[in-house]
Design brief:
heterotrimer; A mainly alpha (363); B alpha/beta (319); C alpha/beta (326); A: 363 residues; mainly alpha; MetI-like fold; two-stranded antiparallel ribbon; 14 helices; 2 strands; 4% strand; C: 326 residues; alpha/beta; Rossmann fold; eight-stranded mixed sheet; four-stranded antiparallel sheet; 11 helices; 24% strand; globular
């Protein structure tokens, strides 16, 4: 035990300590009547921990390298714009829910109010006069983005939806990327029959109908965000695995790997300290380009009713609003616009990152 | 004059497969029966053209590739079949300097970390100590301690190669296999690096196997020289002897192909191309291009013999 | 004597976001009929850029020829139309590049690639072009040309590929061939063969060769005249004997001295201290002065003019005072 702790760096030790703590709390929580956090939230915390220790911290340590790449990314205006939007969205997702109204609060008296600056004709049946009275409702500052047919504030719902979309996007993508990267690198490094076996396994998973799996799981366990995330994550790693493997294959014969071997570096260390950091460039690009896909997938699932009804996501809102596009159009249009902008932002950022990482492109 | 390393009939073949079922049809005989020894503290120059197998020989010698046949004896012990654990000890004794300084450094690590990794693997666990030793090494190879935080792409070719040398030195080796360490560098930087290598040899008592294709570089650094062709050593002698009176026709051709600023004539041009190492010619491998070919050359393989004192060659001209 | 190709005060700069790289900074030379001029220097000295500038092959952006004249057949190649330049390229002035591996198109047989300029410039039909290709291949020493012309580049060795490049360059019987380090990727014995071919061709066809290299051994084998470049400028030029037997510029001296030679003791060489300067912010005055052992105070302030030492031997160095431009 002591030898292991001697070999591990401080960062790894701290990470493991916090991980143990988290697992401990999780286990204790299972037995409580009223658990502190939902299982999904434990998953979030785990990945947040992973991200901070193995994503953000290395960026800080290798400041100059980070700055070098950032300078290259900055040359793409669109990429920077995309990043700005994403940062804004993340900010909204974190802080927003504390600042807006309760998205689940139903208030039938204030239903169907259009966004600020718009007005709409509404016909209501008046019992007393036995007639349809047409009134004009105008948007108010109290509900700047309007309300839906149950009187829920649009702004609040969209903000809460932002949080959901980003969480789903990030989490599912991270699961897929991590599995895909490790598998790809190990497969490339081991070569031979191990490589063959892993790649055939990848082929099988590629043809796996994740959609049917999801329907099946939902049929048995009921719809839940956690399942959606897991289903997407556990079936979406195949593309990454393939790409990473081909990249790692070409890296494997590079001289600095031979140099490391000649120093007596163990295979494990070569994989984690040399191969993985060098395949990260395409992986980062794939990540930023997958996130919008996942967000859209979740929205689509909610749209067709397979989503988690306890959670307000943009897809759910969209689905509710698409029926009355001709009247209360804002209920569908607003989440639609947000989805569009988010996907665009991630795509721009991904393009910018890809060019920044490509050593051949002269910027 | 202790023999540090000895190789006997070393072979390294790469299988060639063809067809759907990957039938083993032939072997690329990169190294095909090489024997020589290294005396402690000397520099043996290994010269040959591309494809002759000298790089493969260098790597196989250090057991970075598993030999297909033959023996490697290090300090009296047969290390040919050593496993990973035992090899780890060998790595402290024998290191390699690579040709392409750009490719031999991990682009994502600072050069200080690359050198530090060598120290870490050999047991220097304390980070502070590693840092100190790294700075020491950098200064020893002519860089500054401040260079440690740089990334490979921020350094020039010569500086990168110095890092490669620092990394090899980090473990205090006795033997260094230098695989074309200056071929990728500019002329004026070549001279600096060659001087550095000679200095270090003097200071640390290192033994070098110096692999190169440039005869003038080989002359500059070697004490003994071995000439390699198509996987085999065709001649081995002391430097002055080899250059003044080369015995093997290939060596003669190499020497006359040089265009020095003070010579213009090219007497013995070689014709033809180097045969494929997967299908070497029968008998003496060089016979297809040899201007002094005899009948026996295509039939019998010449033995590597001591033709004159400490001057070995494999050629039917001398029987 | 007039030259076939004359370059006057050529300046090619690269405009990058880090600054302006003065890759070629006022370079002049003359290439005469049937003679070989070698541009010698280390990496980054601008020799390749100078060669590419002649045929306007410099990547632009970020590069651009900002000044100078390139005179060929009475015309300034900088100012001719694109159409006319295309007619000259590969036809009257041909180029051989460094790495035959990447200069040949991997999906076409070599016979087709040699035929391409023939069909383009001389308007030969496919059949006759292929026949001519075969003849050319034999002339450059490719055995069994009739079968070999159907081979693809990957089936040929490095030496063979380079011969294909030479055959392609020769196909339209140009007046000038610009060769950019054509032997760098080849083995010693193959180098000798290729060099021999080039020398023979130069003599038999009265070709003018502009040969870019860093290898003094090659220069000794083929050059009639030599120009030594450093930091974008020519520091010394003259006949081969002038430069090799009477090197005058400290850089030339340093370079020749630090070459490993097959003579003398085993051991230390005398390298040139320091490193190649930045071409974005070159040193003031003489660009070599930070590394020069014999640096004078004037060297740090004024750029030296070219001074004639004897006949054609010209040097740009304050150690040789003299007025006027060379």
């Amino acid at each position: 035990m002591r030898k292991i702790s001697q070999r591990l760096s401080g960062r790894n030790v701290l990470f493991l300590a916090l991980l143990m703590a988290l697992v401990g709390v999780f286990v204790v929580d299972i037995y409580r009547l009223e658990p502190l956090l939902k299982p999904l939230e434990y998953l979030y915390l785990f990945f947040a921990l992973l991200l901070v220790f193995y994503g953000i911290y290395p960026l800080y340590v290798h400041r100059r390298l980070t700055r070098y790449y950032w300078e290259r990314v900055k040359k793409h205006r669109l990429a920077v714009a995309g990043l700005a939007f994403i940062v804004f969205l993340v900010g909204v997702a974190i802080i927003g829910p504390f600042l807006t109204a309760d998205p689940t609060m139903v208030n039938f008296k204030e239903k169907n109010i259009p966004p600020l600056g718009f007005s709409i004709q509404q016909s209501l049946y008046d019992v007393s006069s036995d007639k349809f009275i047409t009134t004009e409702i105008t948007g108010t500052a109290q509900h700047p983005l309007g309300t839906d047919d149950k009187g829920r504030d649009m702004l609040a719902m969209l903000v809460s939806g932002a949080r959901v979309s980003l969480q789903v996007g990030l989490l599912a993508t991270l699961i897929a990327i991590i599995i895909g990267t490790i598998l790809g690198v190990v497969s490339a490094y081991l070569g031979g029959w191990a490589d063959n076996a892993l790649m055939r396994f990848t082929d099988v998973m590629m043809t796996f109908p994740f959609f049917l799996l999801l329907v099946f799981i939902i049929f048995i366990f009921g719809p839940s965000l956690a399942f959606i995330i897991l289903a997407i994550g556990l079936t979406g790693w195949t593309g990454t695995a393939r790409l990473v493997r081909s990249d790692a294959l070409s890296l494997r014969t590079r001289e600095f790997i031979t140099a490391a071997k000649s120093l007596g570096v163990s295979d494990t260390r070569i994989v984690f300290r040399h191969l993985i950091p060098n395949v990260l460039s395409p992986v980062i690009v794939i990540t930023t380009l997958s996130i919008p896909g996942v967000i859209l997938a979740e929205a689509a699932l909610s749209f067709i009713g397979l989503g988690d009804p306890t959670v307000t996501s943009w897809g759910v809102i969209l689905q509710a609003g698409q029926r009355s596009l001709d009247t209360t159009w804002w209920v569908a249009v607003e989440p639609g616009i947000l989805l569009f902008l988010t996907v665009l932002a991630f795509n721009f950022l991904g393009d910018g990152l890809r060019d920044a990482f490509d050593p051949r492109s002269q910027l | 004059m202790k023999r540090l390393l000895e190789i006997e009939n070393l072979k390294k073949y790469y299988p060639v497969t063809r067809g759907l079922l990957s039938r083993h049809v032939a072997d690329v005989r990169a190294v095909d029966g090489v024997s020589f020894y290294l005396v402690e503290g000397e520099t043996l120059g290994l010269v040959g053209e591309s494809g002759c197998g000298k790089s493969t020989l260098g790597r196989t010698l250090l057991l970075l590739e598993k030999p297909t046949g033959g023996k490697i004896i290090y300090q009296g012990a047969d290390i040919t079949e050593w496993d990973k654990r035992q090899l780890k000890e060998l790595r402290k004794e024998a290191q390699m300097i690579f040709q392409d300084p750009q490719a031999s450094l991990d682009p994502r690590m600072t050069v200080g970390d690359s050198v530090g990794e060598a120290l870490l693997i050999q047991g220097v666990d304390n980070e502070k100590e590693r840092l100190e030793r790294t700075h020491e090494l950098l200064q020893r190879v002519g860089l500054e301690a401040g260079h440690a935080i740089r990334y490979p792409h921020e350094l020039s070719g010569g500086q990168k190669q110095r890092i490669g040398i620092a990394r090899a030195l980090a473990v205090n080796p006795r033997l260094i296999v230098a695989d074309e360490p200056v071929s990728a560098l500019d002329v004026s930087v070549q001279a600096q690096i060659l001087n550095l290598l000679l200095d270090l040899q003097h200071e640390f008592g290192l033994t070098y196997l110096f692999i190169a294709h440039d005869l003038s570089v080989i002359w500059q650094v070697s004490e003994r020289v071995a000439v390699m062709y198509l996987g085999q050593i065709v001649e081995l002698a002391e430097r002055a002897e080899l250059f003044a009176s080369p015995l093997h026709p290939y060596t003669q051709a190499l020497l006359s192909a040089l265009n020095l600023p003070d010579r213009k004539q090219r007497e013995r041009l070689l014709t033809g191309e180097v045969p494929s190492p997967a299908a070497p010619p029968p008998g003496c491998r060089f016979h297809t291009r040899c201007p002094k070919k005899m009948t026996i050359c295509s039939q019998e393989i010449p033995t590597f013999q001591e033709i004159q004192p400490v001057h070995w060659a494999a050629c039917h001209l001398y029987r | 004597m007039d030259g076939v190709l004359e370059v006057r005060h050529l300046k090619t700069y690269f405009f990058t976001r880090l600054g302006v790289v003065k890759a070629v900074d006022d370079v002049s030379f003359i290439l005469r009929k049937g003679e070989c001029l070698c541009l010698v220097g280390e990496s980054g000295c601008g020799k390749t850029t100078a060669a590419l500038s002649i045929l306007r092959l410099v990547d632009s952006p970020p590069g651009r020829i900002v000044a100078g004249e390139i005179l060929y057949q009475g015309k300034d190649l900088r100012r001719v139309s694109d159409e006319e330049l295309r007619r000259i390229r590969g036809n009257r002035i041909a180029m051989i590049f460094q790495d035959p591996q990447s200069s040949l198109n991997p999906v076409f047989p070599v016979g087709d690639q040699i035929s391409e300029p023939l069909r383009l410039h001389l308007k030969l039909k496919k059949g006759s072009a292929l026949e001519r290709s075969q003849q050319l291949m034999t002339q450059v020493g490719i055995p069994q040309a009739e079968e070999r012309r159907r081979d693809y580049p990957h089936q040929l060795s490095g030496g063979m590929k380079q011969r294909v490049m030479i055959a392609t360059a020769l196909s339209c019987q140009p007046e000038v061939i610009i060769a950019d380090e054509p032997m760098a990727a080849l083995d010693t014995t193959i180098k000798a063969q290729i060099l021999d071919i080039l020398v023979t061709l130069k003599q038999s066809r009265e070709l003018s060769l502009l040969f870019i290299t860093h290898d003094f051994g090659i220069v000794a084998g083929i050059a009639d005249r030599v120009a030594v470049m450093y930091g974008g400028k020519i520091v010394e030029s003259g006949t081969r004997e002038d430069v090799f037997d009477h090197p005058s510029h400290p850089y030339t001296l340093g370079l020749l001295n630090c070459l490993p030679k097959i003579a003398g003791q085993r051991g230390q060489l005398t390298p040139i201290p320091g490193t190649i300067p930045s071409l974005i912010e070159p040193p003031q005055g003489c660009i070599f002065h930070p590394r020069c052992e014999r640096c004078l105070p004037v060297c740090t302030k004024e750029v030296p003019h070219e001074v004639t030492i004897s006949g054609e031997h010209v040097v740009a160095c304050h150690l040789y005072p003299g007025g006027g431009e060379g």
